[in-house]
Write a structure and sequence with these properties.
The structure holds 2 protein chains of 2 kinds.
Chain A (H helix, E strand, L loop, with lengths): L2 E11 L2 E7 L7 E3 L2 E5 L3 E2 L2 E3 L8 E6 L2 H12 L3 E10 L12 E15 L3 E7 L8 E2 L6 H4 L6
Parallel strand pairs in A: 2-4
Antiparallel strand pairs in A: 1-2, 1-8, 3-4, 5-7, 7-10, 8-9, 9-10
Chain B lengths: L7 H23 L43 E3 L9 E3 L3 E7 L11 E12 L10 E3 L6 E6 L2 E2 L5 E3 L21 E11 L9 E5 L4 E3 L6 E3 L3 H12 L9 H14 L5 E3 L3 E2 H8 L5 E6 L2 E6 L18 E3 L4 E10 L2 H4 L3 E8 L7 E7 L10 E5 L7 H17 L2 E7 L13 E8 L7 E14 L5 E7 L9 H8 L31 E2 L2 E6 L5 E6 L49 E2 L13 E4 L7 E7 L6 E8 L3 E2 L2 H6 L2 E9 L7 E6 L15 E4 L5 E2 L11 H4 E3 L21 H6 L1 E6 L2 E8 L16 E4 L7
Parallel strand pairs in B: 3-8, 17-23, 19-21
Antiparallel strand pairs in B: 1-13, 2-10, 3-4, 4-9, 5-10, 6-9, 7-26, 11-12, 15-16, 18-22, 19-20, 22-25, 23-24, 24-25, 27-28, 29-30, 30-33, 31-32, 31-34, 34-35, 36-37, 36-41, 38-40, 39-40
Helix pairs in contact in B: 6-7
The chains are: A mainly beta, B alpha+beta.
């Protein structure tokens, strides 16, 4: 038995999927779950589950090609979701296409909350839009439209 | 990890959590998992600041006015049975003060004070007559509505007949009140009682309407999970795709089953993460992540119905030596401070059904311990109206602190647990400790999985907390919390004296909803144009600005969203270059940079103390004569230079102490030509055999320097050319003749070409064309 892990990445919003990428099967598109996943080299952090403060985020680094930059920035701009899946499988049973029985060991769904990188690579941070500074509750404040000029008592 | 806004206590809690997280990150980095950030584990943290109960309400105070920018409170409660509801003290946005008049026939000396109050964000249940107070008295009349302005009174100060009584003059204008629950309250009292300006209080039995997660009914809720969902969706715009509904539903069931209800007001601006971190543990819940989604988990094992599970627990996996990676075992024991017996003092709110509530404290301690302290105060009075809730939370804090002795960090190799283990699962860690001397021992404990970190290398980082169990493998903490029940004693409110109530404490009626259908205001803009601010019943947007279309209503140009372009720009594609040109000679007054006699020429080097040398250069031989030199020297063009037909060059040097001569390399200007004195330039005709020039144009554009140092004869149809030998003028030097270069042939005659012009001489032609003239590009007058 020789275990290996593959990663599949999907950028979507609602029922619409914009990108399906996988980084394991080099230079080939593979079929998995009734969809085609194009080869796109990327590197993802580990996935942490059960975090207390819900601050866990993961970073996915991709080459800064035109298509990737377009996809990442659009996802960032439109608050699209990204699903990262990690599969584990036995390479002795096949290493050219995803195996039907491969095990899903981790899944992460997050918004593209940030993007940065170098000239040659771009890293998108997946997490929750619960900004440490922006997500204030209660959400609304008294304003002129709501209450006009309030009385001075 | 960042410290965010919040109360001082929250910031301190965060700072402590940040430090703990930082230590764990370092540990993880040592273990080769530098990309994995380990967070602090869930628990109810002891407060660093203990203060008065947050749920307490002062009754006899002045009516508070709303302030722009102040948060609109969320009133979240639902009275079920004898538990729940919350007393609010809403701010006023409009007011009206009126004594006896034709429109207000009240007794002389009385005053009617009307207040328009904002009760809460969103729609809340109708408030019963028995639940509206001014000070501590059930008096006055009111009407309540939603999404519009309640009542019909016109705000203002209409006190005209009461001497020595002064009411506020700025009485408010009103607005849309969109999405707000509002109330118009009025009470008439004698002026001398001084009660006209007292705070209005309302006991809300049903707060913000939401779609309850447990029964999908829209209405008030007391489930903290419903409140969190509202805050996440309405306040923070978290999409439903990022919320783990199953865990939220289970958490809601847990709080409902165990009576952990939320009956409170959220009126302090708080980051939602801070709110979750500080509030959820007090409902024995913890915020979590499942597959990246926001999730909730009870702090205790639960049954399918949400009850605290006190049955024997089973573990899902056993970790032994074969699973642990090298150096993958790290244990952290509880400190001495955490092990000392103490008493948890919980603040909560007792809420009678027909009276104003009171704050209660409940002491939770193990028998015979901490009778005199130390006390650790946890304030649940902001939202907790149940003694059992307070007691169970206190018990959990106490029990966990007493029984959980250590935490474990494990780095393990992947195994079959990889796809099954989840946070909250119970695992067993059984390791043999074989010593070279003495007896061997076994580390054999049950743990609850707090965190699972999965890396691409396959190794898994586990954060485990001891799960103390009894001999029957039943959770000790769960048993203690499940059996902890409050005494159930309801204290009297302490209210005494002659009742000031006018309305009955048993009146559960609700006044009719009376409201204004819309509101507008008129005024004059900065340009003197009339405008109308139109707030139609909370539906229209506020239009502000000048009345550009003259319809009497103000218009706003607003913001037009433009589409930025990041590609395809026209224009230059390079950056400005650093100038490499040498300084030029300044001071030439002639057209095209030609100097005239008398011009004072300068040469700006761009350095202080620069040395300048002026040279007259023979263009034919390149030889030069220095005519002036010195620091910042100038040169006044002399007539001799003009007659000599020489160019002028400036050679400058900037000071350089490191150079042998004290100056840096030479900076040589472009040459400038000297205009011959009295000369004219232009196109013209030289008549046959004459030494005069006619037809000179009044303007001459040299275009470039060469055009006047080497004039090209551009005549057509001429025969022959210049002949120096037949120059009718005397004194034409041979050198001059030799300067003529015949290098161009027109019409088969080799006598056309360029000639160098020298000042002081007249050119004539020897052979001319049939019309007796020759066209030329330039000439000059004799001196």
């Amino acid at each position: 038995m020789a275990n290996a892990q593959s990663q599949f990445l999907r950028i979507f919003s609602g029922s619409v999927t914009y990108n399906r990428w996988q980084s394991y099967y080099v230079n080939t598109s593979v079929s998995w779950e009734s969809a085609t996943w194009a080869y796109q080299p990327f590197d993802a952090d580990g996935i942490t589950a059960g975090d207390v403060e819900s601050e866990a985020s993961i970073n996915i680094t991709l080459p800064a090609t035109t298509n990737v930059i377009e996809a990442v920035l659009t996802a960032l701009d439109q608050a699209r979701l990204v699903e990262l899946r990690m599969y584990e499988f036995d390479t002795l049973l096949g290493n050219s296409t995803p195996q039907a029985g491969q095990t899903l060991i981790a899944t992460y769904i997050g918004e593209v909350v940030n993007a940065s990188g170098s000239f040659t690579s771009i890293t998108m941070e997946l997490g929750s839009s619960l900004s440490p500074v922006g997500a204030q509750v209660p959400p609304r404040k008294f304003n002129t439209r709501l209450i006009g000029a309030p009385c001075k008592l | 990890m960042s410290i965010t806004s919040g109360t001082a206590q929250q910031r301190l809690d965060q700072a402590r959590a940040s430090l703990a997280a930082g230590r764990k990150v370092l540990d993880a980095a040592r273990l080769g998992l530098s990309t994995m950030v380990i967070k602090p584990l869930a628990s109810v943290q002891p407060p660093l600041v203990e203060q008065a109960a947050a749920g307490s309400s002062a009754l006899d105070t002045e009516q508070r006015g709303a302030v722009l920018g102040e948060v609109i409170p969320i009133v979240f409660c639902r009275r079920v049975g004898e538990i729940g509801g919350v007393l609010i003290s809403p701010p006023a946005t409009e007011a009206r003060f009126e004594d006896n008049s034709l429109t207000n026939p009240i007794a002389t000396g009385d005053v009617t004070a009307s207040y328009h109050l904002v009760l809460a964000e969103g729609r809340i249940d109708s408030i019963q007559i028995r639940d509206v107070f001014q000070r501590a008295c059930r008096i006055g009349t009111y009407t309540q509505t939603y999404d519009r302005r309640a009542g019909t009174f016109v705000p203002g100060n209409f006190v005209t007949n009461t001497p020595d009584f002064e009411a506020p003059y700025y009485c408010g204008t009103g607005g849309t009140y969109a999405g707000l629950s509002t109330m118009a309250f009025a009470a008439t009292t004698p002026v001398e009682f001084g009660q006209w300006n007292r705070q209005v209080h309302c006991f809300v039995r049903g707060g913000l309407w939401v779609t309850r997660i447990l029964d999908s009914v829209t209405g008030p809720s007391n489930n903290v999970v419903d409140l969190l969902l509202y805050l996440l969706k309405a306040g923070s715009r978290v999409t439903t795709d990022q919320i783990d509904n199953a865990s939220f539903l289970a958490a809601a069931q847990f709080t409902q089953t165990n009576g952990f209800w939320y009956n409170g007001i959220e009126d302090q601006s708080t980051n939602v993460r801070d709110w979750m971190a500080s509030t959820l543990p007090l409902f024995l819940l913890r915020s979590s992540r499942i597959n990246g989604k926001q999730a909730l988990r009870p702090l205790l094992k639960t049954t399918a119905t949400g009850a605290i599970d006190t049955s024997p627990v089973d573990f899902v996996f056993i970790f032994t030596e074969e699973h642990i990676a090298p150096d993958g075992f790290s244990i952290q024991y509880s400190s001495l401070a955490e092990r000392k017996p103490f008493c948890v003092q919980v603040l909560w709110r007792q809420q009678p059904t027909d009276d104003i509530g009171l704050i209660r404290t409940t002491d939770v301690r193990y028998p015979g311990t901490a009778e005199d302290g130390p006390f650790e105060q946890h304030d649940l009075s902001r939202f907790c109206a149940s003694e059992n809730h307070a007691v169970k939370v206190g018990t959990y804090i106490l029990s966990r602190r007493r029984h959980v002795s250590h935490r474990l960090s494990l780095r393990v190799k992947p195994d079959t647990f990889n796809d099954t283990l989840a946070p909250g699962d119970i695992v067993r860690v059984k390791l043999d400790r074989v010593a070279s001397t003495g007896a061997s021992s076994v580390h054999d404990y049950l743990y609850e999985v707090e965190q699972i970190g999965k890396s691409v290398t396959g190794e898994v980082q586990l954060e485990l907390t001891e799960f103390p169990v009894d001999a029957d493998r039943r959770s000790v903490v769960a048993q203690e919390v499940a059996t902890a029940v409050g005494q159930g004693i309801l204290l009297p409110t302490g209210k005494s004296g002659v009742s000031c109530d006018v309305n009955s404490s048993g009146n559960t009626g609700v006044p009719a909803d009376t409201a204004i259908g819309g509101w507008s205001a008129t005024g004059t803009d900065a340009n003197g144009n009339p405008y109308t601010v139109d707030w139609d019943n909370g539906g229209d947007e506020f239009e502000a600005g000048t009345d550009s279309d003259g319809d009497g209503e103000a218009n706003s140009t607003g913001i037009t969203a433009l589409s930025p372009s990041r590609t395809g720009w026209s224009g230059r594609t390079d950056n400005p270059k650093t100038s490499t040109s040498t300084p030029s000679i300044t001071g030439a007054t002639g057209a095209g940079g030609i100097t005239n006699v008398g011009d004072e020429l300068g040469f700006t080097l761009g350095c202080e103390g620069g040395w300048t040398e002026w040279r007259l250069v023979d263009d034919a031989t390149g030889q030069y004569t220095i005519v002036s030199s010195g620091v910042a020297a100038t040169y006044i063009v002399a007539e001799t230079a003009a007659k000599a037909g020489k160019s002028i060059l400036a050679v400058g040097k900037c000071p350089d102490e490191s150079a042998p001569g004290g100056y840096g390399p030479e900076i040589i200007s472009a040459p400038v030509q000297v205009k011959p004195p009295g000369s004219e330039f232009g196109e013209g005709t030289i008549a046959t055999g004459l030494n005069s020039i006619t037809g000179l144009s009044s303007t001459f554009n040299p275009g470039s320097q060469s055009q006047w140092t080497n004039f090209e004869l551009v005549s057509v149809g001429i025969v022959g050319g210049f002949s120096n030998d037949t120059n009718p003028l005397t004194g034409l030097p041979t050198t001059f003749r030799n300067q003529i270069v015949w290098n161009r042939t027109i019409g088969g005659n080799p006598s056309q070409g360029s000639a160098r012009i020298f000042p002081g001489y007249v050119w004539v032609t020897e052979a001319i064309s049939g019309d007796g003239s020759i066209s030329f590009a330039a000439a000059y007058d004799a001196l």
